[in-house]
Amino acid sequence: MSYDKVYAAWKADPNGFWMDAAEAISWDQKPSKALFDENAPLYEWFVDAKVNTCWNAVDRHVEEGRGNQLAIIHDSPITHSTKGITYLELRDRVASLAGALRAKGVEKGDRVIIYMPMIPEALEAMLACARLGAIHSVVFGGFAAHELAVRIDDAKPKAIIAASCGLEPNRVVHYKPLLDDAIDQATHKPDFCVIFQREQEVAKLIEGRDYNWHGFQYGVEPADCVPVEGDHPAYILYTSGTTGQPKGVVRPTAGHLVALNWTMKAIYNIDAGDVFWAASDVGWVVGHSYICYGPLIAGATTIVFEGKPVGTPDAGTFWRVIQNHKVKSFFTAPTALRAIKREDPKGEFIKEYNLKNMQALYLAGERADPDTVKWAQEHLGVPVVDHWWQTETGWAIAANPLGIEELPTKIGSPSVPMPGYDVQVLDEGGHPVKAGELGAIAIKLPLPPGTLPTLWNAEARFKKSYLEHFPGYYETGDAGMIDEDGYLYIMARTDDVINVAGHRLSTGGMEEVLASHPDVAECAVIGVSDDLKGQMPVGFLCLNAGCDKPHADVVKECVKLVRDQIGPVAAFKLACVVDRLPKTRSGKILRGTMVSIADGKEYKMPATIDDPAILGEIAEALKGLGYPMA
Ligand code: COA
Ligand code: AMP
Questions:
Q1: What is the sign of the dihedral through the CA atoms of 225, 226, 228 and 234?
Q2: Beta carbon of 70 within 6 Å of any ligand 1 atom
Q3: For residue 522, how far is its CA from the centre of ligand 1 (angstroms)?
Q4: DSSP 3-state assignment of 165?
Q5: Check: CATH 3.30.300.30 for 497-625?
């Protein structure tokens, strides 16, 4: 069937479409219908079903004869090791871990925070929670203790599962002291912690609170899968919004299973037994959907890669992994390819490996710039699929669905909406604009299965952030257009979220940290264009009257403060002191104009600007930081 036909079939009968897709899931109790719209504009899917995610991702495949197939391949160029885990082994390991968690009191509905690097145990921890119906919340390892503490206080976990350390190419990340610090900072205290001791660093355990991953499983009864209701939260994943308080995106169990399973074939063209690799991190939504759950639900083999696109040891590492493990579909962020392209512009490393198994490359997480897409097309010789989605949706809003039909590629566009998504471009008044015109991108409600039904403990914030601006629609926070052929173009965010190396960050959150510095009276953070990372944060600091500290010292302290409070992942390294910030007469900081100056773009003098001369001062300050880039 063609994409047009599949999309039309969904539009004509959404309920029937998703009930058909639901046939592929192994239910404890089948749903009576797909959509539950009684509480519109809040929607739920498959609410009256009973199902278990871990059963569908693990046990089911053992029952169906895939026990000896590899479920997970761990490849770590940092530790120079490769290890495979079969579905049978995975089931036993997860059942044992879940049994130990249960023996310590973890039950359906309890929250468990997971703070782990790219090791198979991170997936096992997620699956063990799913087995019990416990709700996990994975926190990315590049966040600092304070960010972890904020998530502990919001999710109120009964337990925290962590590793002793993470391994970055140039340093060991000491997870345990970060965890201890976060628990000290948080008001909520978990009942207990489970620590996976890596051989690279053994952490000190706190008697009575911390348990050793292996030791605490000794002698416990393995746990069976606990069926949960269709709308039971599978997990909470925090993502950046406009403030320092992250949004807890809730993922509903049944919709997640149905939608991810559908995408594995329709978008990624993956069948049971194939090898799929998403080079992301379990701390991000890509890691949840396509390192852990999606490939496992589909009965495929997933790769857990602990390394970087370059430097571990070289720009050929991705191609080695694809060759050695026979990867069929590969997913990464454009920034990773830009890093490779910068070191290997002619694609010499690519020629050293046999990539015959790879059938397609998928890009997401940020805008895929045309140069990078063309480079990949030329050197890899496979379809390059840019696809657009968000933590909130959990799967692609727009893509080129290779498992249905390979549509013509338009470079710069993530192609067309997937079934379930009625995507529209709206003007400020909420009216659809004409093809080719720019506007806010919104999705007509209801969103499809698997997308967020609400924010954790924050329904009012959910409505305010996503549903109120354009009644009847979900506001994506992205701006762009749809062309005459129905292809989408994602151009920019409409809020203060920036995208640094495929990581979603809040400039508002960074401003809150900077404003806490005793010498800072006022500040602004903007995202400027960066050749490698897409965007980089730059801070502007106005100091308190009478502050006689050298500016360079204040800048240094501010850079350290953001690293200590948010974490290295913020990549906040550039800041400058200015006398004033450009504002409108009503006091709104003109961040957009500052971005244009930094990027060397033409801009219109804002009619409401209070004092145009300040823009000259901002341009001078940016020049001092090397912007606009040559
Ligand atoms: N734990 C601890 N620290 C981490 C971390 C983790 N899991 N991941 C990143 N960091 C740290 C890095 O060590 C670095 O610290 P530094 O300032 O001391 O050097 C900082 O966070 C920024 O990291 P990163 O953004 O990864 O930049 P980099 O300069 O180390 O590498 C790239 C540049 C382009 C190679 C890298 O950003 C990359 O691979 N990006 C792809 C990201 C991706 O796949 N995103 C997908 C999201 S869907
Ligand atoms: P995250 O929630 O971290 O996945 O970030 C989602 C945001 O990243 C989106 O709202 C977009 O701003 C951006 N994004 C993700 N994928 C793409 C893409 N293919 N093209 C352009 N922007 C993207």
A1: negative
A2: no
A3: 29
A4: strand
A5: yes
Class at the top of the CATH hierarchy for domain 87-226: alpha beta
pLDDT value at residue 345: 97
pLDDT at 563 over 80: yes
Q: Which of 390, 391, 494 to mutate to test the pocket of ligand 2 (most atoms within 8 A of CB)?
A: 390
Starting from the CA of residue 479, give the closest ligand: 2
Q: How many CB atoms lie within 10 A of CB 257?
A: 31
pTM: 0.96
State yes or no: cis peptide before 446, omega within 30 of 0: yes
Q: Please list, in sequence order, all residues whose beta carbon lies within 8 angstroms of the beta carbon of residue 558, skipping any fewer than 6 positions away.
A: 514, 517, 520, 539, 541, 575
Report the C-alpha gap between 421 and 470 in whole angstroms.
16
Amino acid, single-letter form, for residue 325? H
φ/ψ (deg, to 5) at 350: -60, -35
Bridge partners of 276? Answer: 302, 329
Cβ–Cβ contacts within 10 Å for residue 432, how many?
Answer: 14
Between vectors from CA 204 to CA 201 and to CA 208, what angle results, nearest 5°?
140
pLDDT tens across 174-186, in order? 999 999 999 999 9
The residue ranges of every structural domain in the chain are 87-226, 497-625
Judge if 87-226 and 497-625 fold alike in CATH terms: no
Q: 153-177, pLDDT tens digit by residue?
A: 999 999 999 999 999 999 999 999 9
Contact 246, 238 (CB under 8 A): yes
349 CA → ligand 2 middle, Å? 29
CB of 618 sitting under 6 A from ligand 1: no
